[in-house]
């Protein structure tokens, strides 16, 4: 699953693990690998949703 940084309008933030996050009506829904909802986030309170880099992803090698 991916990690997302959710930043709120009150200055707080949190990290959510989900396969994806999609808007649905008045909230964002985080979806788990098995298709179940794993997070509900009110859209009105959110400034940004940013997918974080995968720490296990291969890194580019440069000379």
UniProtKB/TrEMBL annotation:
Protein name: Uncharacterized protein
Protein's organism: Streptomyces swartbergensis
